[in-house]
Design brief:
Layout: E1 2-8, H1 13-22, E2 29-35, E3 42-46, E4 49-53, E5 56-65, H2 70-81, E6 89-95
Antiparallel strand pairs: 1-5, 1-6, 2-5, 3-4
GO molecular function: ATP binding; enzyme regulator activity
Keywords: Nucleotide-binding, Phosphoprotein, Transcription, Transcription regulation
InterPro entries: N-reg_PII, N-reg_PII-like_a/b, N-reg_PII/ATP_PRibTrfase_C, N-reg_PII_CS, N-reg_PII_urydylation_site
Length: about 110
């Protein structure tokens, strides 16, 4: 099993969720996060004063899936989240050693 974490622009969340649902991924966790990468934030004007916004709003999607779904999930996220502009986000894939569903005690892929 693998954990796929995707940091994307907030307005792309619904599209990405639908794309993941189409390939059979039903459960996911979404967190509102802030951060920056190469884009290093930007400057804004507020009441005539210029200020720097260092951390930009993003959304982090986390899914734990079977190994055979990982490539399809990555392709779905990339194709739906890409705008072609800086700040589209990143995807991280890590190994998951164990999963336990608290309610039933099911483990690993049965718990996902």
């Amino acid at each position: 099993m693998k954990k796929v974490e995707a940091i994307i622009k907030p307005f792309k969340l619904d599209e990405v969720r639908e794309a993941l649902s189409e390939i059979g991924i039903n459960g996911l966790t979404v967190t509102e996060v802030k951060g920056f990468g190469r884009q290093k934030g930007h400057t804004e004007l507020y009441r005539g004063a210029e200020y720097v916004v260092d951390f930009l709003p993003k959304v982090k999607i986390e899914v734990v899936i079977a190994d055979d779904l990982v490539e399809r999930a990555i392709e779905s996220i990339v194709s739906t989240a890409r705008t072609g502009k800086i700040g589209d986000g990143k995807i991280f894939v890590t190994a998951v050693e164990q999963v336990v569903r608290i309610r039933t005690g099911e483990t690993n892929e049965d718990a996902v």
